[in-house]
Amino acid sequence: MNSSSASISFSAYGSLRRYNAALLVCISVLYVSCLCVNLFLVLVIWRESGLHRPMYVLLVHLCLSGVAGSSSVCPHVIRLLLADRPRTSLAWCLTQVFFINVYSGCIFCILALMAYDRYVSICKPLLYRSIVTPARVRALLLLVYLSLGWSSAAQVVLTSRLRLCRHTVDKLLCDSLVVARLSCESSAAVSVFGLCSAIWVVLCPCVLVLGSYLRILPVLLRGSGASRARGLRTCTPHLVTFVNFSAVSFFGVIYNRLSDRVPEAAAVLTCVNFFIVPPLLHPIIYGIKMQEIRQSVKKMMKKKMIQM
Fold first, then answer.
1. Which of 17, 118, 175, 194 has CA atoms 20 to 30 A from the CA of 80?
2. What is 10-307's CATH superfamily?
3. If 0-12 CB within 10 Å is exposed, 13-18 middle and 19+ buried, where does residue 258 land?
């Protein structure tokens, strides 16, 4: 078993030294903006009792998952950009693997729950309150967090048992594939478990989302103009969010497999594109597209202006 005191060096930072100042400013501004936008939307939903409904509860968890994902990576990248010798302990590297896995799984699973919520709301509106109850939403969210926590912890434990022969990686951060490539021998257990986990946290939610919209689309097409417009208003933010995160996840997987053949700048773009852009865009998309959120924001702003 590896010692938690072993260190991992990140060679990718060496080739980016001349861009350090620009990268620090860019990543810091994007990260702070991500925190502010997500926490503001969470505050709006928390303050407005009219938004205490399943769809908005899921949106709060989507925002918090984005904050957790970007916070597990951005401070680490900023710290290594400032360091003379970019390195971290193996224990912290494995901790980052855990949170990255939970983050990506949470986004897909919560988007799947949101798709099911839209399906019931549009296709079975009379049964919505009896099917999508607050207690059931809480139970499903708890199931998501427990299952993702367990699978991520199991993958970290399996990865930590690999004996490392190398301690230098050519990326900006850690993931399970990075650590596995440092080992002296290939591990079928890690590979098989990683594949099964990916199927569970990515493929199954994607199938649920696609299945939900295959049911929703005919209902919208058969409805009146007003009901079709209302349905599209509630579905569009979710679809844009799902397509956006699926696209950045796909390119992230491609980069992981071809990282030895692409320029170092791709490491920065992949990091920003996966851990900052989606959490930053998701609350903005919902804030712009969903009328109830816009109205709640305007109401809060008016109250603040009156109090001033």
1. 194
2. Rhodopsin 7-helix transmembrane proteins (1.20.1070.10)
3. exposed
